[in-house]
Design a protein that fits this description.
Rossmann fold, six-stranded mixed β-sheet, 11 helices, four-stranded antiparallel β-sheet, alpha/beta, 235 residues, 40% helix
Length: 235
């Protein structure tokens, strides 16, 4: 579904990402982990088109994303749930979800999507008329996920969904994501600081350090790797 080959990208002439290659197959749950400053968020922004690529290629469903302007990429089926949630605080929960449904597929599937979103994340149904800015951090994260789902994505990209949340709330959100993926078969690409949880949930993982992929493998392989165990799992 998503093929990234020898990607270099960044904000200045000096790239943040250097020769990154990643593959995500349809229906997979793929995790990208690594320390702060490794380039994980930059990778997502490059896929979404808000950061330009310097070298390499990104193909989504056999489409070269370099030829697709950023505002059209969501219409291809890419939903980016950004770091820090970034909900619209002055809009209600329902209005935020409606903003997510601006894609052609999201408008077409709105009725069925909103039913599923409310079933998966019932707090959003309870708070549908409440201003997003008055929600708790966990509720805002669930709203950001719901907004992404409202676009009828083929690929859901989640950037640090547990950031700033209490462990119990983060655990709940991970449980919801696993259930959403189980019921929908949605392809998920996750960047996450909670490495143990990310690798436990994922089919495949990549370790990104200083803008380069230094390790990759299935979840069992990475969780058993001494480097991962010592650097990220505290073992």
């Amino acid at each position: 579904m998503l093929r990234i080959e020898a990607l270099s990208a960044g904000y200045t002439a000096v790239p943040v990402l250097n020769g990154v290659s990643i593959a995500v197959d349809e229906g997979q749950f793929v995790a990208i982990v690594g320390p702060n400053g490794a380039g994980k968020t930059t990778l997502f922004k490059t896929i979404s088109g808000t950061v330009g690529l310097m070298a390499g290629s990104i193909r989504f469903l056999d489409t070269d994303l370099a030829s697709v302007p950023p505002h059209r990429r969501a219409h291809l089926g890419i939903a980016h749930v950004p770091e820090g949630r970034q909900v619209f605080p002055s809009l209600t929960v329902m209005e935020n979800l409606e903003m997510g449904a601006y894609t052609e597929a999201g408008r077409r599937d709105w009725t069925s999507n909103i039913e599923r979103i409310f079933a998966w994340l019932p707090v959003l149904a309870e708070r549908r008329g409440q201003l997003a800015g008055t929600l708790s951090g966990g509720e805002q994260q669930m709203l950001a996920i719901g907004r992404g789902l409202a676009s009828s994505p083929k690929l859901l990209m989640l950037d640090e969904p547990s950031m700033g949340l209490a462990p119990a709330i983060a655990d709940f959100i991970f449980e919801r994501l696993i259930e959403i993926r189980r019921q929908s078969g949605l392809t998920v690409l996750l960047v996450e600081q909670r490495v143990a949880e990310a690798l436990e949930s994922a089919d495949h993982g990549y370790v990104l350090e200083m803008g380069r992929v230094v390790l990759e493998g299935n979840n069992k392989t990475l969780r058993a790797d001494d480097r991962v165990r010592q650097a990220y799992l505290g073992m």
